[in-house]
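Limitations
The structure tokens in this dataset are predictions for the assembled complex, not deposited experimental models. Users should treat interface geometry with appropriate caution, especially where small molecules or nucleic acid strands are included. An illustrative entry is reproduced here so readers can see what is and is not provided.
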Amino acid sequence: MRILPLLISSVITAGLVVTLNSKLLLPAPLGKLLSPQHGIWQNAESSQASFSEEFKFPQLTGKVQVYLDDRLVPHIFAERDRDLYFVQGFLHAKFRLWQMELQTHAAAGRASEIVGKIALKHDREFRRLGMVYAAESSLKEMEKDPQTKLACDSYTEGVNAYIASLTESSLPLEYKLMGYKPEKWSNLKSALFLKNMSENLAGHDNDFEMTNAKNYFSKEDFTKLYPSYQDSLDPIIPKGTIYEKASIELKVPADADSIYLNKEDLAVTTQEEKPDRNNGSNNWAVNGAKTKSGSPILCNDPHLGLNLPSLWYEMQLHTPELNVYGATFPGAPAVIIGYNDSCAWGVTNGGRDVRDYYEIKFKDESKREYWYDSAWRKTEFRYETILIKDSATYMDTVAYTVFGPVMYDQSFSGGRASNSRYFSVRWKAHDKSNELKTFMQLNRARNYEDYLSAISNMKTPGQNFAFANKVGDIAMRTQGEWPAKWKGQGDFIMPGTDSTYQWQAMIPFEETPFQYNPSRNFVSSANQDPADSSYPYYLGRGYPLYRGIIINRRLQDMNEITPKDMMSLQTNDYNVFAEMATPILLNNINESGLSPNEIKMLRLLKAWDYNNAPYSRGATVFDVLWTNFSKLVFDDEFKNAPPVIIRPLESTLLQGILSDTVYKFIDNINTTAIETLSDDITIAFKNSIAVLEKAQMEGRLEWSKFKDTRVNHLTKLEPLSRLHLSIGGGTHSINATKPNHGPSWRMIVSLTPKTEAYGVYPGGQNGNPGSRFYDNFIDHWASGTYYPLWMMAADEEGDSRVQWKMSFTN
Amino acid sequence: MKFIVSVLLIALLSLAVGLYLPWWTIALVAFIVTSLIPQNPIKSFLSGFTALFLLWGALAWVISSNNNHLLAGKVALILKMGNPILLIIVTALIGGLVAGFAALAGSFVRRK
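Predicted assembly:
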């Protein structure tokens, strides 16, 4: 034996193995990652791959057949609910496990465990918001109810059966790339997933921003900049509806109007990124009087962040008592938006303000006692342990008062509150509720009464539920358990030293605005105000206006409607905001001093038909011009304002200049001259030219290229994302596709005797980036085309659409 | 002859253990085979290298072709390697180098 060479070559080999198995020297463990039998190659799904398989699980009580069609949509046929939800969980995990775990980790404030220190702020924010606390209280309700408990238990078993079957080579790609392994699923994770949707949809507020605005501006200016009622409002429940007197009499605190005025600035010095305030969706239903077939048609397109793998997963669930098709959430049992043999339903976000803040007075820095109703009360504490990848564990202590968790204090400002004060958050999502029951019951609903009973379980996030059935009924209900507020309550930070500012009661279910078979023969919602000002409860402010206006205008005019007509309506790019704004812009541009290039750009705007079509260049000119105009009008007023503030809504500026030719904010307060509307618009137009010319030189003047819509992988890794999609629309169009946000599931259901349904979402059924089913729907979605949705019958096993079969036995 | 037998043995045994054991067991396989079939160090190295270069390269190539290089294209971009073919070559090289050095070490076990 030659010791020295043996030693040297052994050390080299060991060194190679260690290097290639870790991230010590390389950015990734290349050996482990590239081993064809273990690493990423195992995720490269063959284009001929078969998904047919036989499974045996002792947890099952009978046989379950799953038929996968040519789009990889599973049609599950089970004998019992128990087995159905087991297989639903199993399939969600098989095709989407990584996202399920990532999203629930993020919801629980555990993202740092996966991605390290960069997520610490997110994790602290979510813990301090009480996400886990909220999910735990919701889980208790879910487990109290036998139906939802059974569904959750079986679903969890199904997910875990899949996780248990994983080997190193069959791990989803992202686990391999990021170097970790999945943990077991639990019912709490399903509750966290649903709570995450609450955060997404009902976790938005501007209380700090509005408080600062109220402090900074004079009362008169404030009212003009932030009006609480919008002139061109076309509410969900139409104007003129008669409402009963409110059954709840609210006691308005005596100092409600003056409190917090002229107090010192509450906020820190930098404003951080906030969720999209135009988070929104469309739904509508027309009855048989307006359709060609004589049967109702229901349409829905929820607008959410556009991600890969998609939030949605299509499925059909079938048992002898149940037959439902639609979009499901990987992470929870049941179908969320869809239809069954009797009816169809769809949702848009209610968007009312259900998150308010109260300033707490603690006795001392220990935060053990706080002043409430003339006495010192004991604080409760929740200790949050945040594990961080490659770093020391972070301990956070969160104080809980009668209002809720103290989200912001000396140690955490969230980029919006003051570090010298304490703010408790009162969030409706903390209250007991069982939203899953809504969907379990809707899946089984046969008539209008079933729909009402199902949605009565929906408390937070409140949703506008559209409904239609085969008997011909249509309905819309602005459902949610809403706090009854006095006018202005919760628009600003409130004092938390006594109960006078607390929410006093919830609006009774019977007093929720709704419509059932209205004489106009349609119902619709697009996140606008639920009702006009004759509704006896305060509804808050800041609802988007324009999509609702155009939807109602079109539906009013449409007759003999076919599903095809609905497709073109749902993908319509018409910009009604621009229709209202462009004439006043054009009338006020002073053309005398314009250069030839400027004239060219102006011609594009003049020739524009207000369609945000993908190829439209006028749409780009309008967008840039409006942005510059709005900046020019308000930049001077906001120059010295606190950074944590919001700018007025687009509708406020537009209505301001339409109704008042000498709109106060037009004048630049920093110049001696008095600027006119024409001055501002002309300057804004000239200011726009640089951006427009640059876009033109780079070939990006066409609207879809300028907007540049993308669908990001959840890690934002570009090679796993889909970039530069050719799609029009925008914030104020029915096709509300923004750069990374838009219609996340388009569905059209015609409730003819044999249901005719269509749908598409920007993703694919398989979450594996190595599968041809990963993103195969995206181009269809972008081009505005739909897939026929197939409600498979039990005897259609031999249909040519069935490509693969999975059978499950015990 | 010894060379071809070594290459075949290393490749086949690596394929077999890879089904059940971690990727780096290819080093153990190469070490044991070359310690049992004595050759000079250069030939030993080459037999280990050739076996795994061919095995991993072929496996990656077949898998990736069946996948129309869909995933390899994406991973190649993430790892900043540009194209799927390069990713397959790098895969083959990694297997080859690890097995090659292990095989080299193995060759010294029985050498005087």
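Some entries come with short summary sentences. For this one: The CA atoms of residues 72 and 84 of chain B lie 5 Å apart.
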